[in-house]
Amino acid sequence: MAFTVRPLTTDDADAVHALLRRSSDCRREMRRRDATIEDGLGLLGPCVPLEGSGARCTHGLLDAEGTLRGICETVSHWPAPGTAHLSLLLVDGSARGRGLGRLLHDSVVAQLRADGVRRLRTDTLTAASPGVPSTAETEETEETEETEETEETEGPRERDPVGFWEHLGYRPTGAPLAALDRTVEHPARTFHRELVPVVPEPRAGLHHLELWTAALAVTAPSWHWMLTTLGWTAEPVPGWDTGRIWRHDDGSYLVLEQSPDTLGRRSERRGPGMNHVAFTVRSRAELDALRAEAPAHGWTELFSGAYPHAGGPDHTAWYGEDPEGIEVELVAAVVPAAAPDGAAEDSSRS
After folding, report:
1. Rounded Cα distance, 188 and 248, in Å
2. Nearest to 254 by CA among 299, 217, 224
């Protein structure tokens, strides 16, 4: 049988009223009395005005004959932008076990996602939420409790709200409930489901690089020009006169320090240890511009006769030394044209 999911309006109050009366748990949910037309209208009216509250909407699941078989009430962008609160999911008791609750839920979720919702939340206010089965298919009903507390019912009810919501992709948070009209200190009864995968913040592969200099006043201007041109940010360290720090957006940073323990006056890249440090440049045009300006900032070009392919025909880069002989390589993030046949591959670079 085909089903339709659409937002309900006050014109649907009679249909909502009839659905509430057909629910075996309706008397308990409506405080041990029969559902009234006012109860149906209460699900279709606007939510209580709250600072920062979003839009309330009740969707209905209708069969091919137009009979209302389920309702799902949500408040979009509450309690925070990008979050939607699911306050009621109820399916006709005569249509249990047919997957209608999941069909309605998933249809509403798709619409919420299109509206910019990135996270769903729901909650239960009692130790065993009335009417919440352990799965979406096999138990008696498919509904959540509304945000108001309901009265105790006679006799225990074997329900597993955690299992039910986990079946729909939610996870318990253990956080206090933020109900529509108050905050309830009731741990482990709020459930969240992420609609957009949470991707960990990318971390830099390199934490930091520290270079020593024999004369900070000579080398620091060269490094400052190059790094800030490449998008790094100078990070002042008050009271530290013998060092400089530049930080990249990815969190890594470079230190240039004049230590009293520095040996010699010049770096030797051919010896054991670091040969050179390389940075990415966005384009060949930017690489050419840096090459043209580098000498004025204390950089000496290396392998100039093989520029820009001293590193090989498929590698576009510029090589230079700072005033103390530390080698830097700037690599253009492009794929260059193929070099002529017989071109040497890094035959002179060292």
Report:
1. 41
2. 224
Q: Rounded to whole angstroms, how far apart are CA atoms 172 and 20?
A: 28
Identify the H or E element spanning 87: strand 83-91
Residue 258 DSSP label: -
Phi/psi at 195 (nearest 5 deg)? Answer: -90, -25
- Tens of pLDDT, residue by residue over 64-108, are 899 999 999 898 888 888 899 898 888 887 777 788 888 999 999
pTM for this predicted structure: 0.46
Question: CA torsion sign, 109 to 110 to 111 to 114?
Answer: positive
What is each CA distance from 147 to 7, 119, 144, in whole angstroms? 20, 18, 9
Q: Are strands 83-91 and 119-123 parallel, antiparallel or unpaired?
A: parallel
Dihedral of the CA atoms 59, 64, 67, 71 (nearest 10)?
Answer: -20
Q: Which 8-state DSSP code applies to residue 296?
A: G
Strand order across the 208-212 sheet: 208-212, 253-257, 243-247, 233-234
**Tens-place pLDDT, residues 148-168:** 333 333 333 444 556 677 888
- Nearest of 328, 325, 229, 320 to residue 277 by alpha carbon: 328
φ and ψ at 298, to 5 degrees?
90, 10
Of the candidates 108, 29, 30, 41, which has an alpha carbon nearest to the alpha carbon of residue 76?
108
Q: Which two tokens stand for residue 90?
A: 């109820």
Decide: residue 60, CB within 10 A, 0-12 exposed, 13-18 middle, 19+ buried.
Answer: buried
Is 325 in contact with 265 (CB distance < 8 Å)? no
Q: How many CB atoms lie within 10 A of CB 26?
A: 20
CA pair distance 9, 79, nearest whole angstrom:
23
> At residue 319, what are phi and psi to the nearest 5 degrees?
-120, 140
Measured CA to CA, the distance from residue 279 to residue 271 in angstroms comes to: 21
Amino acid of residue 153: T
314 strand-pairing partners: none
